[in-house]
């Protein structure tokens, strides 16, 4: 694209500082709780999932504390079981699944597409209420009563052999499932029909593609888990059901139906994070993402192949050997598109003008940790190896590398990257770098020992173990404290920045993308005049209205940028 | 600025929402949204259809017997005709909505409503018969096999039968509620329904409910076992 081409600097709303924005046009509680503005709903979600993350984190720390001793001094076995169940349920269903889509996705989709809102604003609000209602019900049951089945709710544990709080928790999950479905439908309709003129499919930011693929997975997968959990619920309450072996039912069928959703669900968690990485990386390498089409294709490939590998969770559950072989082979195939992405990101960094800002550090952390997580996924997918490591800490380490090292770091990268847009304020860059570093180090210290533990044969979900494993557990617990600090610091400075942060201006990073052409924070209806898009995504070869912030030596070329402010 | 004020400011069609540029975009978006919703519905029932297929495959004999002997195929067939007719009248209702013919629209909607009540009535008769014959799974379940088949899996058949037809009936009931609301709004000449989209979307939903039955009927009542 030639240097004359107009960058996405439609009229920058310079005067907007004085105009009311989406945050301050009204302050009443009612206007927040009944809002249909996607940006406010994103903030509501942000608050909810932060609380959930805190609760899940407390459970995690309790687990880690218990595991410092081989004899489990701190709690009863039953309490321990309830703790890891609560940790898993909260972190997966109430934090990771909604994390990026419901906050960053909700906030950014219309802005990136050049629309005034999502397609169905009222459904969007409904989704938050469903999420909150489901969360309150499930948490109520887990905190007041306790559920000890693990996040997977395998029958017949969950149907016959455990207490009746399971039923209430399932109701909560069922409701929360619908909040995800509603979001998915909303995103699909929005991406299909609300794109600004000129914003063709091949010009979409990869963040949008990631959310498109995620929404497809949500729409196809979540109803299945909803009906499955519903059947368990019926089985518990009415004592009739198709999973109960006593009346000829099939408990393995539950596992098939559960993993039919829950394997794709891991991509619901990781794809949006991958979308974030694309945006952040392109911005801080000042380059178009290498192989846009391939990244795009791999996103869709993951959505498709993700539905064909659920059986790799059931290699040792009495599935036939041939079925196992097919699922094993398909699992190897599903790793290919993930590898393509890692390759493309690396190639994007190569010869880029890399700016090591905080979001970029999170991003680099993501790439490394996701690679380890993905590769160990292949260990787990190899039939014979999995017989050894199944149900051990190796699997625990694998999925934490992808979900915590991958998805959560991606979420934090995105939150830092778009925080100035969402709030209009900068966070303190120095502290953010410290936090990113702590999270990276703490994470590895927590979970690398778990690979070793698993390899040595430490089963997951146990809290008594042979004394020779203690050293690894202690290391892991030490790491988790560092990790917790790495999460607590951003919470503090984000809150601090709301009041004291430097004003960000529309485009502090000099980033490409429609969302950076509007004021920070955006006004209630996003765009005064809807944009017409004539450029490709990530056109970093033209200068952008940019960086008012001087955090780093790598301040972007300001002179050229200024010459464009006339547009 | 409230959402309503925003409409007025733009001078839009009265039922156009602020996030859309024009009515065409709004209509197309609604349709995409509705179809996506129907996809989730298909997957929702899909889980149950999967469970049914697996148990059926593994227990051909008892499933065939239970279906043929204890479900009344004539009532099922009658209901199929009723639902198909209701789909026809629903399609006509959409047609008249697009033509903005209020009276014919109401007549068609009324007829569809009538059909759905007939359907539920017949279904209730069937269920109460099963109930009387102790086919409701649970402690009182009893099953007599003609061919001296092992009856262990008969309970599963009835679990699935009640779960699937029950879920379908819930969808019919939701449909009835929506029809009543739509009918009242149309009769009251509310502006929102002068525009055909709500009726069209409800039409899609209703056809979906109908199609689910088109699959349920042969699965439970008709397919023969191995000969
Ligand atoms: C690169 C592709 C991946 C492959 C080939 C893969 C493979 C596997 C396999 C075979 C297992 C089962 C291990 C066992 O139970 O013995 C597993 C477990 C798991 N994986 Fe992955 N995985 C991949 C990526 C991911 C991603 C991206 C996530 C999440 C963001 C994830 C989350 C999980 C979780 C949560 C479990 C454990 C479930 C449980 O039993 O509680 N995986 N993975
Ligand atoms: Cu999996």
Provide the gyration radius of chain B in Å. 22 Å
Q: Can you count the helices of chain A?
A: 15
Enumerate how many helices of chain B there are, as a single number: 8
Q: Major sheet of chain A: size, sense and barrel closure?
A: none
Q: Give the termini separation of chain A.
A: 17 Å
Q: Strand-residue fraction of chain B?
A: under 5%
Number of E strands of chain B: 0
Helices and strands, with pairings:
The complex is a heterodimer of chains A (567) and B (227).
Chain A: H1 29-33, H2 38-66, H3 77-113, H4 121-145, H5 165-193, H6 206-238, H7 251-285, H8 292-305, H9 321-349, H10 358-381, H11 383-389, H12 393-423, H13 429-456, H14 470-500, H15 558-563
Helix pairs in contact in A: 2-3, 2-4, 2-14, 3-4, 3-5, 3-6, 3-7, 3-12, 4-5, 5-6, 6-7, 6-8, 7-9, 7-10, 7-12, 8-9, 9-10, 10-12, 10-13, 12-13, 13-14
Chain B: H1 3-10, H2 23-58, H3 60-70, H4 73-98, H5 102-132, H6 154-187, H7 191-194, H8 197-222
Helix pairs in contact in B: 2-6, 2-8, 4-5, 4-8, 5-6, 6-8
The structure holds protoporphyrin IX containing FE (HEM) and copper (II) ion (CU).
Residues 152, 266, 269-270, 312-313, 331, 334-335, 338, 374, 377-378, 380-381, 386, 390, 395, 398-399, 402-403, 406-407 of chain A line the site of protoporphyrin IX containing FE (HEM).
